[in-house]
Amino acid sequence: MSILVCGEAIIDLFVSIDDGTMRAQPVLGGSPYNVAIGLARLGVTTSFFGGLSSDIFGAAIRSRLVAEGVGVAHAVESARLTTISVVGKDTDGQPAYAFHGEGKADRSIDVADLPKELDKDTRAIVMGSFTLAVEPVASAHLALARREAGKRLISIDPNLRPTVIPDLARWRRQFAEFLPDAGIIKASDEDLGIAFPGMSHREVTANWFAAGAALCVITHGAKGAVAWRPGRDPIVETGRPVEAVDTVGAGDSFHAALLARLDQYGLLSREGVAALDDAHVSEVLAFAVTAAAITCSRRGADPPRLAEMLPNPANADAVRAGVVR
After folding, report:
1. Cβ-based neighbour number of residue 13 at 10 Å
2. Secondary structure class of 133 (helix, strand, coil)
3. Short-list 188, 192, 177, 159, CA closest to 32
4. Where is the Carbohydrate kinase PfkB domain (predicted)?
5. How many CA atoms lie within 13 A of 51 on its CB side?
6. What DSSP designation does 305 have?
7. Which of 22, 89, 195, 279 shows the greatest Cβ crowding within 10 Å of its Cβ?
8. Among residues 150, 152, 130, which one has the least CA distance to residue 263?
9. Predicted model pTM
């Protein structure tokens, strides 16, 4: 069985200035890109659908995907440039972001670029991040979700980016369009606090269930994660402290591991997710937070391979760690 991951693959450009000297380090990134690599490393047959530039950055992204075992037959090559997200610090020393993405390759996918037909063994489609809300790619993804939802599980991570979509009312309207087709929604408590201020997680997930979702998983940073299902008590996976190098890509590793574990159980379908019992939910959450914790233990978005996820006394303290976003 396989999973198709849709969305952006971009460059994160980390910039620092020391005594008037500017230093910059480009890093391959993008939430869907990270999820695709995370899935492949966990043994899931994975392919990527998104716009890749023919520039030097796009070539590096394509090469890395192929090296990780991610299929790129559905990737759409374009002469448009690769989006660059500049990451630096403001005058108070806090992270500051600037997106250079207007008209770039990842945003320029339209309905005509959609795969005409997916392989019959494609069981799930992953969507998320800012390509859910910028045009024309958002409309293309929505058309794909509507076309395939009756045949395949759709899993969405909003992964809100206020610097890209500052109009939250517009973002909420766009995100709501995807809800009827979403079987799984994975989100962070940080995202929900920004997108739906004043609403409890129970209220937010109730709205999502009313729209059609079967499973909602909310990550809570170092506190762990909570799975919500319609008419059922939430399942809590408590986090443990982990010596984190950074948390970059932890939420993407969580999302990948969540889907990979469902795939391993043969439950990667809307029917399978709806039938999950409490024991399965707890185990899937534990697997996902383990993947996130391992990612946090090393620098950058570096998701674990399946061999690293096997029970091992050396990483027992990380088994239920929960530094996930």
Report:
1. 18
2. coil
3. 159
4. 5-303
5. 26
6. P
7. 195
8. 152
9. 0.92
